[in-house]
Amino acid sequence: FAEGRVSWILLFMLTFGSSVKQAQLEALDQAASSPAGPGDSLQALGFHVLRDGNMWFILLAHFLYSNAVMKGEECIPMTWDIFYEKFGFMLIFWNFTGVPFMYCLQSMYLVRYRNKEETTHPLAYKLMCYGLLLSAYYVWDVSQSQKNLFRAKEENGGVYIKRKHAFPQLPWSDLEKPKYMSTECGSKLLVDGFWKYARKIHYTSDFIMALTWGLICGFGSFVPYFYPFFFLCMILHRTWRDTSRCKHKYGKDWVKYCERVPYVFVPRVF
Fold first, then answer.
1. 54-71 helix and 7-33 helix, angle to the nearest 10 degrees
2. Taking the model in full, what pTM does it have?
3. If we measure between CA atoms, which residue out of 226, 206, 15, 221 comes closest to residue 102?
4. What is the pLDDT along the chain (270 residues), one digit of tens a residue?
């Protein structure tokens, strides 16, 4: 509940509220500069916001992430946050404060610096941001689904009941007869789907999504880049901790796994 429903829904509501505030401010700007009535100003505003696209981008980005947490909430107990970090002060504090009130900095920034030079981008730049966001989201969503369904069905012998109303249902989310490595400790390591390309490919796609949240705000301030910077530091530290844990747990099998999947974040690069 605290990991998903409080933090991410509150984040989306703050972003939605920011978009409403931006609309109000733009309507006032239109009314001050045009002899037209308030209704005409609001109609003009609607076309302006749609053409601008920055706030729509953040709304889409935060909706996709929040919705993904909701549709996959049955997988949360198996995540690193719950399974290894445990639900102590760090997670409680960050879920109730950091996620909603720090991850919305881009939304607040766009309201404050609307129609400024640093937040005005050519169409090609906006399309690049949208393309990066949607591509990274697909890899992130599908890779997480592949791993969690593998754990539920193959490793733990469970039965997967598809949630028909969960949206979006993306192709390749459920691997048929996935390839895996058996280990001496009894666990199975997935080496199929996106996980045959890199051991932390979900972190890479997650970081790219975070980076696009900043890119859509331009380069006028570090504020929109706080989240991607924080996230990068967090995943590097978490990767180091997880690697140490896996070396200790799997021993020689971990060496074989790393030989089979040699890249950590970016296939054929690193």
1. 160
2. 0.88
3. 226
4. 666 778 889 999 999 999 888 877 777 777 777 665 555 544 544 444 444 689 999 999 999 999 998 887 766 666 666 666 666 667 778 888 888 999 999 999 999 988 788 888 898 999 999 999 999 999 999 999 999 888 888 765 666 666 677 777 889 888 988 999 999 988 899 999 999 999 999 999 999 999 999 999 999 999 999 999 999 999 999 899 999 999 999 999 999 999 999 999 999 998
Residues shown for the chain? 270
The alpha carbon dihedral of 169, 170, 176, 181 has a sign of negative
Q: Which of 146, 160, 135 is nearest to 193 (CA)?
A: 146
- Cα gap 135→130, rounded to integer Å: 8
Is the distance from CB of 203 to CB of 194 less than 8 angstroms?
no
- Is the CA virtual torsion 20, 26, 31, 37 positive or negative? negative
- For the chain, the first-to-last Cα distance in angstroms comes to 35
Spatial distance between the Cα atoms of 6 and 95, rounded to a whole number of angstroms: 8
Alpha helices in 53-200 (DSSP H): 54-71, 80, 89-93, 99-102, 105-112, 123-150
The strand ranges marked E within the chain are 180-182, 188-190
- Rounded to whole angstroms, how far apart are CA atoms 130 and 141? 16
Give strand pairing partners of 188: 182
Which pair of tokens denotes residue 166? 């969960």
